[in-house]
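Summary for the lay section of the report: proteins are chains of building blocks that fold into shapes. Here we show the chain for ABC transporter permease and then a coded description of the shape we predicted for it.
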Amino acid sequence: MRAVRLGPRSLVALVLTSLSGIAAFGWPLLADEASGLAHSQDAPWLFAALLPLLLAVAVATVADTGLDAKAVAMLGVLAAAGAALRPLGAGTAGLEPMFFLMVLSGRVLGPGFGFVLGAVSMFAGALLTGGVGPWLPFQMLTMGWVSMGAGLLPGQATLRGRRELFLLAVYGAVSALLYGLVMNLQGWPYIAGLGSGISFVPGDPVGENLSRFLAYVLATSLGWDVPRALLTVVLTLTLGGVVLRALRRATRRAAFDSSPAFAAPGPVERLGGTPSTSPGNSAPQER
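The coded shape description reads as follows.
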C-alpha cells in the first residue's frame, strides 16, 4: 500500500522537474568563457522554479490518485523528523542521519511521495541549521532524487527481512556517494580561474572538464561522502527493520488506498422508521 501512487500526470510532473534539475546542474559544462557563470546567480531562479514544480507534482498526484489529508499529515510528520535529524550530523565529517530515514520512507511510501518528502525535508532542515544559501535548491532536488529512487527499487511486495535491509543498505550507500558527486557539480564552478589542475575552465571541452571534476571529487569530497555512506548503511541495518514496520503499520492504518462506502438502507430505514425488536429483547434484530 502506498500513500502516493504515480499516475500519468504526476509522472510527467516528476520527469519535467528532474529534467529541469539536470539542466540546472549541468549547464556550466556547456558554457563559454564569456558566460561569467556562477551558480550563486542562477540558484534564486532555480529555487523560484522548483517550488511551483514541487507543487505541480503534488497537484498532479491529487488529480491522479486523490491525495488526502492523511497523506499530507504523513508528509508533514516525516519531513519534520527528517529536518530534526539533520542538525545531529550537520558539519561533522559528512555524517547525515536523515539519509537513512529518506531512503526507508521512499521505499514504503513510493517515488512520488518520496520526491516531495526529500525536497521538503531538506528545505526544513536548512531552516533549522541556518544552511540557506545558493546551494539549497540543488540540495532539495538531489535529496528528492535519493528518496524517489528508493521508491523505485524492485521487490516492493515480495522482498522482506534481511534481504530487503541489505538492498536498502546498498542503495543508501550508493545514493549517499552520488549525492556528494552531484552536489560537487553545483559547487565546483566556484573555483573557476584558480589555475589548478582540478579547477573548472569555462569553454573547455566537456571531456576535459569532467576529468578535472573527477580529480576534484577524489581530492576534496570522499572524506565527507564515505562517512555519510557508512552511517547510512549502519543505521539501515540496525534500525531499518523497526522503522520499516512502523511506516508500513502507519500506512495500513491510514488506509490511503481505501475509499468510503456506505451500506444500502434497509426497508425500515428507507421509510424513516426504526429497526424492529423481538419480544423481550430491546436490541434490534439482526437482518
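Put simply, here is one thing we learned. The longest helix spans residues 222-254.
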